[in-house]
């Protein structure tokens, strides 16, 4: 496979890296952004729209740039390096991943691309664990619209989203693969209750309760689309993890060079040099697997695609956990303080590790499939 970036992809990388350096180079700025009413900075969101990042996956006919998994990987890796708070993952990777594949949504797509509307995907339910087909929320017809009843949990950026894309069951039992629909609703509408909260990594989530909430049907047979977008999301999370791993490794190496013990920098001790080298190896292994994920997410065979993405998520999750723990140990107590940023990178890596399935879950999927596809 050819992993060299094209000229356009290099320009995209330069653009998003400049944005991250400018807006997140000073860690104190991130703390100020978190304190805002939406948990991020509206000015940063507007700048991302101006840079075209919010229209990245849209086709030219939809007013976008036709970016694919590699372009998403480039952006997510840069956002991971800066621990960016703006809801690119929730709105662009998940929200647009679903919405752009539904006909007749051009006006809403344009609003999202302009930064006027933020999206959130409300799918996870308490009983479902990581089974995408386990949906208990129900949808019933009421005249020319639909009414939704149920509860969704850990809706990423759900408390600040302007529109929710919700999965609900039109027919069948709770764990049947058929009969799952996708709906669009206004979270400010009657029958929708949201409880927002900060997640451990400083981002935002929400619990959403639906009681006769009116919604518009987007797709009546949505599970294949949901599983496709979930695989794209896994590839994006792997890329974000690589960016965070890279920065956390660099922070640790810089600390080893400056921290004095017994009259010399602790980075001069060979045992610690070996551990720093292991962190470099882990980062590069994770990067290689992330590139593999970006290639395989376009595989036309859903089973082969899912197995490849599970393998990537499992390995990147294992490597990021190892690197994060090494970084905390090598820093010592300072890494556990709220003021120092190393702990924040560790928390984000921990969160990525469990989003869309943890290491054990994805290893079981790979084993059940008989290993990676040829």
Describe the secondary structure blueprint for this structure:
Layout: H1 7-24, H2 27-34, H3 42-50, H4 69-82, H5 88-99, H6 106-113, E1 119-122, E2 138-142, E3 145-152, E4 163-169, E5 180-185, E6 192-198, E7 204-219, H7 223-258, E8 260-261, E9 264-265, H8 270-296, H9 302-331, H10 342-354, H11 359-368
Parallel strand pairs: 1-4
Antiparallel strand pairs: 2-3, 3-7, 4-5, 5-7, 6-7, 8-9
Helix pairs in contact: 1-4, 4-7, 5-7, 7-8, 7-9, 7-10, 8-9, 9-10, 9-11
Summarize the entry for a quick read.
With 374 residues, the chain is α+β, with helices and mostly antiparallel strands. It is 49% helix and 15% strand.
Backbone CA Rg: 21 Å
The separation of the N and C termini measures 14 Å
CATH superfamily of the largest domain: Butyryl-CoA Dehydrogenase, subunit A, domain 3
Q: Count every beta strand, where a strand is a DSSP E run of 2 or more residues.
A: 9
Oligomer: single chain
Instruction: Give me the number of helical elements.
Output: 11
Class from secondary-structure proportions: alpha+beta
Strand composition percent:
15-25%
Largest sheet report: 7 strands, mixed
- SSE order: HHHHHHEEEEEEEHEEHHHH
> How confident overall, as mean pLDDT?
95
* Number of spatially distinct domains: 3
Low-confidence stretches: none
Which geometry do the CA atoms define? globular
Q: Which architecture of the largest domain would the CATH scheme give at its second level?
A: Up-down Bundle
Helix content: 40-55%
The CATH topology label of the largest domain is Butyryl-CoA Dehydrogenase, subunit A, domain 3
